[in-house]
Design goal:
Strand order of the largest sheet: 1-5-6
Strand content: 15-25%
Order of helices and strands: HHHEEEHEEEHH
Shape: elongated
Distance between the termini: 38 Å
CATH topology of the largest domain: Beta-lactamase
Number of domains: 2
Length: 246
């Protein structure tokens, strides 16, 4: 599934600033968000590859961004996780305790107006002229539930009604939010520098649906994932995430 940005010609300066913080007509996949974090870390864009050792990697693309701008963005991502008042600051959120690396990141809470539709109403016109309303997750399931002989079910005409029967989670009094966190590891003392192909410098994106705010929910998961990555790379056991010594 691709992300979505409005055409460049449709954006005023105000709209561009709005899109720059992820608001408005802006869609991004977790993989694209992780690659965005990697782009900020490296100061250059690299097309995504799903191969660990890609035999034909595409070259990096230099972006028309001044180094001072990259440093401002990195400083903001550092403070979000490592300074008092940051949306991912604290031991219960995203702050990483590690002797060699720090975690930089950005939290997000994407509002969702309602839960995912699990069942909707289908109006089934049966071969004998009767009309039957059936709650089902999809049209094929509604057809299979139709009150007619199995041999006649291919003749059932189905019209989806504009009505949700059941959602998950149930509709709350206020909109749900999907918890987001994107970030990357950087060496202690060098988090403002451009990093490229350095061991341990890993980018991550975590999205947890219908779960709350990014700093409270997604950031601790990202922090634990990256802490486990570092400890396992060093040959240590991460009892915090593995449930104890195996």
């Amino acid at each position: 599934m691709p992300g979505r940005l409005p055409p460049p010609g449709d954006n005023s300066k105000g709209t561009a600033r709005y899109l720059g913080i992820g608001q408005g007509a802006f869609d991004v996949t977790p993989l694209q968000a992780a690659n965005m974090a990697a782009t900020i870390a490296a100061g250059e864009y690299r097309p995504v590859t799903l191969e660990l050792d890609d035999p034909d990697p595409q070259p990096a693309v230099q972006l028309p961004v001044r180094q001072e701008v990259w440093r401002i963005i990195r400083e903001g991502m550092y403070e979000a996780v490592n300074r008092q008042g940051g949306t991912a600051f604290g031991d219960a959120r995203g702050t990483l305790s590690d002797p060699r690396y720090v975690l930089l990141g950005k939290t997000g809470s994407a509002e969702v107006p309602s839960g995912r539709i699990i069942e909707r109403l289908y109006v089934c016109h049966l071969p004998d002229g009767r009309v039957q309303e059936i709650a089902a997750p999809d049209a094929n399931t509604a057809r299979a539930k139709a009150d007619c002989p199995p041999r006649d079910r291919n003749q059932v005409k189905i019209v989806p009604a504009d009505r949700a029967i059941r959602r998950y989670p149930p509709d709350p009094p206020e909109p749900y939010t999907h918890a987001w966190f994107v970030g990357y590891l950087a060496p202690q003392g060098r988090y403002l520098a451009s990093l490229s192909d350095e061991q341990g410098c890993v980018a991550v994106a975590v999205v947890i649906e219908y779960s709350g705010h990014g700093g409270d929910v997604a950031a601790p998961v990202a922090r634990d994932m990256l802490r486990s990555f570092l400890l396992r790379n060093r040959g240590e056991i991460d009892t915090a995430t593995s449930g104890g010594t195996p």
